[in-house]
Amino acid sequence: MKPILDRVLRTVRNIEIKPEETEHAAERVLSKLTAEYNKVVPHPAVVDRITSCEDFRALIPAYLSRSLTSARTMLFEDHTRECVACRKAMERARLPRQPHEGLRATMSQRTTYKTRTYRHVAAWAVAAGLVFIAGLSQRNAIRDFLWPIDVHAIAQTVDGNLFVVSDADIYPINAGDRIDRDRLVRTGKESRAVLQLADGSRIEVQERSELSLDRGDDGVKIRLGRGSVIVTAAKQRSGHLYLATSDLTLSVVGTKFAVNAGVKGSRVSVVEGEVRVQNGPTVQALTAGQEFASNPVLNTIPPAAADLRYTSNLVNLVPANTVAFASLPNLKEAVDEVYQAFKQRVREDPSLGASWPSDDVMNRVRQVGTYLGSEIIIAVPLKDGEKDLAPVLIAEALQPESLKAAIQGLPGSKIPFVVDGGLFVVSSPGMIDEVLAFRHQTRSNPFLSTALYQRISAAYREGVTWFLAADLQKLLPARPVTTQLGLADAQQLVIEQKHGKDGSSYRAVLGFNQTRRGMMGWLANPAPMGALEFVSSNAYGVAAIAMKDPSLIIEDVFAFLQRNNPQAIHDIDDFQNQHRIDIRHDLAAPLGGEFLFAMDGPILPAPAWKIVVEVYDAARLQNTIQWMISEANHEAAAKQQPGVSLSSETVDGRTFYTVSFPAASYKVHYTFWRGYMLIAPDRTLLLEAMQYRDTGSSLARSDNFLSQLPADGRDYVSGFIYQNLALNLPQNLVRNSTPSLICLYGEQDRIVLSSKAMIGTNLSNIAGLSGLIDQVRFK
């Protein structure tokens, strides 16, 4: 090995570098450093030259606000790793102010003065009363003084990002750093960490989880705000180790257990030992292998079997090349319900019934349903070359002759059909013959060997009410655009709705034949989401989603444009070079993965909307916003056009920013709070959002929201869409409207939508929209 290295070194030494190459390299380095320097909005405290520790300490405000160039940032971080005094100065700068320190000192002085200058017995009484009141208010402080417990943790390992979150700031911590009492820590997307308490207990923190440490009655208490942890509790010499979520309190003396906490509730699983779980006034002990969920929706609750079909004699008769399949219940009852609801509206407003079919026609339609079996099958075959194949409807004929008469009595009933041996088939003559042939030779049907048939069979084993399935591999032709979007891997689309005694459950599954890629891979795996905590319980429209990584999404978009629209990429590159900005580095990298939009407040005179975005580096993002506005104003001034102004104001320690657009007479307000960026049309909405988060009075605690969570056995979601229009819209528009919630789950090879009842899948919901009919007239 040594002779090879020597030979390589001799070759490198003998390479001649031309002077012009050296000059070009130096120019490139200087250009890059200059661009990096110009991109940073300078902090007022930045010094010109660094000659001592005092100069490094003067850079601390600029470092915390991400206002240093990358070169100075590297130099500053290298110095603080070596210099203990400067490192401690930076840690003190990160600590929030203690507004009560001066007050305590003043009270101490007053107490000393009173004890020295007492002259009357009344003064003793007043002093005793003050001490008594102070003792009550400072119970925890007295307890900590008399019975101290070491409440802190050390970050043993950090895989990804681990942050300490204060009111308006968020900064990363590394392995080996100390986490003190009441410090709120949060893991980032696709990140994990292991924390070790002073007594040796270990906390394995999963991605997007949030917790803090506090003192319990006789031990350390872990406050799990959201997310998942695995706790290995050390043997407690005296006292207990506690863990508290929003609805559960756990106590142990030495065991291993896992806890998930989210919007749906909390789940506890015991691996070793015993865990005492308190849920309200109820306390129970769990041992190894046992599990407890605070909310029934965390468990999969199957609907009542009365309305489900577990077998079908009709599936085996569908055409061989079927690519779309639907199994529907007999619609007689649903048709009756909708028809009666509509007749009631016609009696209130006769003009609505002008174009509605006559009672005679509707009676015949209802009779057709009476003569059919409990299930109706619809199959759509794939086009065979140049030959279009008609869809097929199959059902059992309970009363064949009566069924024929009812169908023949319908106006315009010229569609071919046959009633043969208790079987009713509607389609083209050729497709009818194929179905009848399979009735006598079922095993000869090639459809029984397809993946679509296997999926349909699995659905019947679980029970079906409404069921639709499509073979996307045959329906979606292989094209470059579908490949780039990740749809080329799509295998099947399945939509089902089940009716039970507790209502309806709806699910749609988009399955892939491998791990999701492209745009389909942007959706994150189910994880706890904190953006919902900034929305009020009176919000009437909310949409939220968790994405894997904004930077990777930008790269996918750029790659897509490079293949399909190279000119667009060229324009983007010109924009980045001209304005000295990197979209991936400066805009996407500081963001987390959560994005939320809500209509949360009055509609008039202007809609009260808000946007909540998870942020990992607020100072860096703010610096980018300032730079972009500055660049936009330079460009507007060159064109003699009005620019955009950015102003800030600090109120009670909270900094609010306002972006004004004079040309449009419009303003947008935003602030950073608890690791999120809040955006709204006025500051009042921002203050309210912060209050919802700090007081816990958010939509996540709303009965309307919680009642719509589907019982699908999942702890977290990847996104959701929620509406409660009845809260803010006129009643004549949303008569009989109820809240609805659709949950979205991104799994490895599929995307799942789940809801208790999705609007549009139940015909009876049409009655709830009858108020909207009054606003629309079709000519």
Describe the structure in your own words.
The chain is about 35% helix and about 30% strand. It is α+β, with helices and mostly antiparallel strands and about 775 residues long. The strands form two sheets. It has an 18-stranded antiparallel β-sheet, sandwiched between helices. The chain has a 16-stranded mixed β-sheet that branches. Mean pLDDT is about 80; it is low at about 95-120 and about 760-779.
Supply Rg. 34 Å
Q: Count the beta strands.
A: 34
Proportion in helices:
25-40%
Strand content: 25-35%
Tell me the structural class.
Answer: alpha+beta
Q: Which overall shape is indicated by the principal axes computed on the Cα atoms?
A: globular
Profile the largest sheet: 18 strands, antiparallel
Summed up, the helix count is 23
How far apart lie the N and C ends? 89 Å
Average predicted local confidence, pLDDT:
81
pLDDT < 50 runs, ≥5 residues: 97-118, 759-779
